[in-house]
Each structure stands twice: as C-alpha cells, then as structure tokens.
Design brief:
This protein is 53% helix and 12% strand. It contains 7 helices and 5 strands.
Length: 178
C-alpha cells in the first residue's frame, strides 16, 4: 500500500507535484481542499466566511482523517493543515509525509501570479506579500519540519522540472516504479 501526504506552504507546488506523482505511480490524487469543497458543497472561502477559521480547521481535520484512510493515494494538504490539532503526527502515522520546501522568494514568485485566487493574498502590495509569506513560513516551519521527507524545490516552471521533482520523490521515498 502506498500513501503519500504532501505538505508545504501555499504556492510550493503541492498540487502540481502531487498530481504528477500520482499519475506516474498510477494511483489516485486527492487535494484536501478540493475534497473538503466536494463534501461540504462550499468553497473553502465560503466555509471560512460563514463558520470562521476554527470551525474550518475542525472540518479540515475530519476530512483529513477520511482521506488519509484511503489506500494507494497521493494527498496534498492545505498550507495550514499540519499546524493544527495533532494533524502532523497523524499524517506521519498514516503514510509517507513529504514537505515541499521553498524559500520565501520562490514562494513569492509562485504566488504573485495567483494573488487573485487566494483570499489571504488579496490586496497586498509586493512588499506586504513578501513580508506575509516570510512571517507565516517562519511560524509554520516547525510543523513542516516534522515531515518524514523533505524535497527542496525551485521554481516548478516547466514540465521537465516537475518531472525531475517526481523522479527525485520516487527515489527518496523508496517507491516501486510501475
């Protein structure tokens, strides 16, 4: 049984690498935020707006416990998922956890193009965005560092680089290649 759980800051490439890794391994891919939206029939933003972050984090934890029971999967989690409850310890107990680690500069370059679709980043100047990323990354790093494996990434700006990251992950995790 293969169960890989990918964590990291928003914009690190969790969904991109996760989808490519799942395809390469021939197993399903789940994005935890998408799973939550499908089950709750609301966007993450709507849940945040209607119920607040505390209730969202409870829902997220419950959905994590559902998805992490599936066999032969790759799951990408939201950037905050490892930082609440016992989520990181739980994920480590359920499968191979992989932290996609990136510098604040790399994350900034990934996120500045996606500002419009990420509510936490709306209306921030480039300087505010850089400071926000650095501050949150510093707070979250102790949780992310608990992952069993870490993959330092650079800009995932080409299919070749994504493919290289997938092959490096397969090797690092000691996975059987189909």
């Amino acid at each position: 049984m293969t169960r890989i759980i990918i964590i990291g800051y928003m914009g690190a490439g969790k969904t991109t690498v996760g989808k490519a890794l799942a395809a390469r391994l021939g197993i399903p891919f789940y994005d935890l935020d998408w799973y939550i939206e499908s089950r709750m029939r609301k966007t993450v933003k709507e849940i945040f707006d209607e119920r607040g972050e505390e209730e969202f984090r409870r829902i997220e934890r419950n959905m994590l416990h559902e998805v992490a029971e599936f066999e032969d999967i790759v799951v990408s989690c939201g950037g905050g998922t490892p930082c609440f409850f016992d989520n990181m310890d739980y994920m480590n107990g359920q499968g191979k956890t992989l932290y996609l680690k990136a510098t604040p500069e790399v994350l900034y370059n990934h996120l500045r193009m996606a500002k419009g679709v990420r509510p936490l980043l709306l209306n921030k100047t480039p300087e505010e965005l850089k400071a926000f990323i650095s501050q949150q990354l510093e707070q979250r790093e102790p949780y992310y560092a608990k992952a069993r494996y870490t993959l330092d990434i650079s800009l995932l700006d080409s299919s070749d680089k994504i493919g290289q990251s997938v092959e490096e992950t397969i090797h690092m995790l000691g996975l059987q290649q189909p």
